Amino acid sequence: MSSLQIIPLFSGSSGNATLIKADDYCFLIDAGRNCKQVTIALEAVGVSPDQIKALFITHSHHDHLDALDVFVRKHPVSVFATEYTHRAIARKCTKPHPMSPDIEIVPGEAVDLSEDLSVYCCETPHDARGSVCYKIRYKDKSCMVMTDLGEVTDDIKRMAFQVDGILIEANYDQKMLVYGPYPEDLKARVAGRYGHLSNDDSAEMIRQLIENGTRKFILGHLSINNNTREKARATVTSYLKGYGYEEGRDYYLDIANRYEPTKALEI
Ligand SMILES: [Zn+2]
Ligand SMILES: [Zn+2]
Predict the structure, then answer these.
(1) Which end of the chain is flanked by fewer CB atoms within 10 Å, N or C?
(2) What is the pLDDT of residues 70-125, one digit of tens each?
């Protein structure tokens, strides 16, 4: 039996990195926080940083690439990102990384990491140019990592429907954002078309995913100021209950930890 796993190492505006394991092939989606934290998290799940064979970056916000500069110097790997994200990375990095080739990805085209393992990306509406989300296909299984998007576009739905499992953003609770500490312009940015998915947005997308065959979900990128694990879970499970879907019976749901690895989601 082959194995495909999503293992969020940490998740949220404080930093994001997700380990994808396709049997022995390990790669990361995003490298937030710092190299030491990524290393500690990898070792906690039994993976040495030298086993990481590639780095896929979703977009140029610091919570997705703060660890990259040092990580690729210590553990050279190919860095996959869109043209605009590569440009932003180059501006933020202190030195070029000749041992870690920059590989430009184009939304809609597949990157074949091995005969059985491919990664696809799709543009996401977010306030960083060149933002994407990723889908991974390994043998007969598929999964997706979808965070940092203001809305779920039709292109993203086409890519996401029928994946077996997904790490999906549930960034904020609508009431907590409205009554919370952020200035009005920042509230508007978070809730806007190029911001983040709310718990309600995530619940509706999960409903559509369930109707198209997905059964395994991890909620991620929760805001530290405008959300709680309890609110995210309650919003999603009660919304789905309204459509007759019971957690445990019809789907599996977990919440990604902010600062430490989350239990592996076996796809
Ligand atoms: Zn982010
Ligand atoms: Zn972002």
Answers:
(1) N
(2) 999 999 999 999 999 999 998 887 766 777 788 999 998 999 999 999 999 999 99
Among the bound ligands, name the one nearest to the CA of residue 195: 2
- How many whole angstroms from 158 Cα to the centroid of ligand 1? 23
Going from the C-alpha of 137 to that of each of 5, 15, 42, 119, 174, the distances in angstroms are 11, 25, 22, 6, 33
Would you tell me how many other CB atoms lie within 10 Å of the CB of residue 2? 11
User: How far apart are the CA of 60 and the centre of ligand 2, in A?
Assistant: 7
Residue 241 alpha carbon to ligand 2 centre in Å: 30
Q: Domain limits of the chain? A: 4-266
**Half-sphere exposure in the Cβ direction for 158 (13 Å, CA):** 10
Q: Which CATH architecture has domain 4-266?
A: 4-Layer Sandwich (3.60)
Residue 243 Cα, ligand 1 centroid: separation in angstroms?
A: 30
Closest-approaching ligand to the CA atom of 14 = 1
Among residues 14, 7, 34, the alpha carbon closest in space to that of 223 is found at: 14
Distance, CA 97 to ligand 1 centroid (Å)? 24
Quote the ligand 2 centre to 16 CA distance (angstroms): 10
Q: Which residues touch 90 (CB under 8 Å, ≥6 apart)?
A: 96, 102
